[in-house]
Predict the 3D structure of the following.
Amino acid sequence: MLKKNILLGITGGIAAYKAAIIVRLLIKLGCNVKVVLSEKAKHFITPLTLATLSKNPILVDFFDPENGSWNSHVDLGLWADAYIIAPATANSLSKMALGVADNLLLTTYLSARCPVFFAPTMDLDMYKHPATQKNINTLIERGNICIEAQSGELASGLEGKGRMAEPDTIVRKITDFFEAKLDFLNKNVLITAGPTYEHIDPVRFIGNYSSGKMGFAIAQEFANRGANVTLVSGPVNISTINNNINRIDVTSANEMYEQAEKHFHNANIAVFAAAVADYMPVIQADEKIKKSSENFTLQLKKTPDIAKLLGEIKRNDQINVGFALETNDEVVNAKEKLIKKNFDFVVLNSLKDEGAGFNHDTNKITIISNNAKPIMYPLKSKQQVAVDIVNNIFKKITSIQNGQK
Ligand code: CTP
């Protein structure tokens, strides 16, 4: 029995008729269910059906026009243990991504402090459209859980991806979430993520294309599994809302080192996912450098190697995991980094693999450790790759506890 307070948000897509089954399945699991409908959703499923099944009045407006009673989105958000938006249309997803608050369903989304699940549904071309994909990714990066659309026959008569996941799949995702083991409870995890920017002058810097997505996905996975995460991030375009993540924004390698060093002593696990600039300008100009001679030389010096410096002071009870982004002799180079930086294992990405590395939503990794064969994984979403990495760290902890090296 799940026995949770579940708020179900239904937006106006044809799959709304399946929401009745979601309500029934949740009630069978002993949940209290309240339903919020968007105005358009009422065209696809009647409030009477949902009120009968959920045993609660259906909420659509901010207030009841009959008696003026107020439907508080804040109270709903606080009441819910989980907010499921199913079906989530392209229109509602875009409003959620932007923070538009023009109906009760959306204001409740903005107020909700609980985990939010959303099950997209739409025609295949709408689903594939970069605007929709960007909105879905924004929500995932924010920590919302996407219950992926499935392929099949669509209401338009076309075949493709865009069908809402089946009600039993949606409900299983929710039960899995609540039954997931908090296997990193009370563990302190330090993660570096994103690029660093090294100041040349007030308008220029040395940087790189790292998006920070991989490091943020790892932070999210650890936080979901109960860890206290300190995320030291270079300049990125990702937002984080998770009570278990303490995010510290930095700009340069020096600042990242300072913060990472401060939190390392208290960490049980450190994951170095940042693409730290290797060099910084010797002189960091206060004024804009003006164009003058034909050639211009910028003198650079090494930045602190954060992973190496912290590897040198690593205690036996700490686990350090590094990344290696290589273009050639990948395994040899990764093994070198493993030893040089005292990592417990290295996550290798090859830039030769399509869909892997910087700025993609997917990644293809190989895990390299000292005493085991490399473990190769297929191309996966960065969220799924984060699960693989965190699972490997869990295995490592277990083997240390069992006295194996
Ligand atoms: N790293 C770090 N601080 C640096 C450089 C790298 O903490 N100044 C970490 C990265 O976060 C990554 C690992 O070290 O976990 C390897 O990074 P990479 O850039 O591949 O290695 P480098 O040592 O910089 O070697 P090279 O660029 O020559 O391949």
